[in-house]
């Protein structure tokens, strides 16, 4: 059996972190078992589905490196849904209903008012059909078949079908609701494992009976606790924005992957530069039941930690023109985002302007002489500072800070030992001279 998972977004908006997390977990799980990960575009709602969102979903997954092994679109599969619908109708598992939304709402209120569960009440098969109404359609739950499954996250799940409403599967205009097409596709596409948010748990209960009604064994399920944002819910901030916004904020795709793979699990978030360790370690038993908190600050931190370990080859084409491997290695411990590399490159190769304290000028004047006389093919920073320490008696901050300031224009930054050879003799001497 090939483990097959699917990510099934409705193309009615861009992907936010919650969707991306679902896609990622489905992908990791399939990859862990050498299985297949499918992208299923749930575009049965032709009014609300937009092609630009389909394109955006594909682009975001590609950016993240989540590559589907196949793509399907529900809008191309209506004939299949129609055939199954007819078969279920013939088997007495789908029936016509005529209530208006207002009538249903009123009835729900009455039941709740009496302290009863607001479950849809079936009509007798021979009840009169209200005049002039076109039916919508419900799936008939088997009230005698207790619904149970072992959820990979939530453990044993049990539902009494008598306490569930028969789900509406098709509207009066013939359009499909999500429930039945999804089940048909899961059977048809050989989906073995369904990983989705816990907001789908009740859907799963009724879909399990649909699988059975179609003569298929239900897949395994993992229902994950939802994500919340830093301030309680995912709204307005990065958590509710699309991957474009992440890109613009300088977030690397691996930072999104590394954080979302482990958020809400008992495994630590680690700054992986490659997804393989995440593929090897995904395990739904390690997912917690409490909502996981998405925190932008944590994402920024993971992003920085990943950059600090990223090898030159992985980023070379995104670096400022001419930036060498040695320069990358010197500056990467100071990066929060890759775009900051440009600022450091200017500090190495461009013009810097420094504010120098008057009392440091004689010292820097001495530094010009020493720097000019050094052998620049060796370890030039220790040579410079050792010589100046000996000749001026300065040490610690008084020795290092004026040099750093004069040479970079800043009080902080990458290790001078790595930086100074990159700045090179000519620029270094000129910068020191300009500071006296
Ligand atoms: N299109 C559905 C959604 O986005 C898919 C749910 C599922 O994974 O079955 O909620």
In the CATH scheme, the class of the largest domain would be: Alpha Beta
Bound molecules: glutamic acid
* Order of SSEs: EHEHEHEHEEEEHEHEEHHHEHHHHHHHH
CATH fold type of the largest domain: Rossmann fold
The residue ranges in which pLDDT falls below 50 over 5 or more consecutive positions are none
| The CATH superfamily title of the largest domain | HUPs
What does this protein structure show overall?
This protein is α/β, with parallel strands linked by helices. It folds into five domains: 4-70 and 182-226, HUPs (Rossmann fold, 3-Layer(aba) Sandwich), CATH 3.40.50; 80-170, Glutamyl-tRNA Synthetase, domain 3, CATH 3.90.800.10; 236-307, Glutamyl-tRNA Synthetase, domain 2 (Orthogonal Bundle); 312-349, no CATH class; 358-434, Arc Repressor Mutant, subunit A. The chain contains 17 helices and twelve strands. It has helices at residues 17-32, 51-64, 78-90, 101-113, 179-188, 201-213, 243-248, 253-262, 276-281, 296-307, 312-315, 325-331, 341-349, 361-373, 380-392, 396-408, 416-434; strands at 4-7, 36-41, 70-73, 94-97, 136-139, 147-151, 155-159, 168-170, 193-197, 220-224, 227-228, 292-293. Helix 1 (17-32) crosses helix 8 and helix 14 packs across helix 17. The longest helix is centred in the last third of the chain and has 19 residues, at 416-434. The termini are far apart. Bound molecules: glutamic acid (GLU). Glutamic acid (GLU) is lined by residues 8-10, 42, 178, 182, 196, 200.
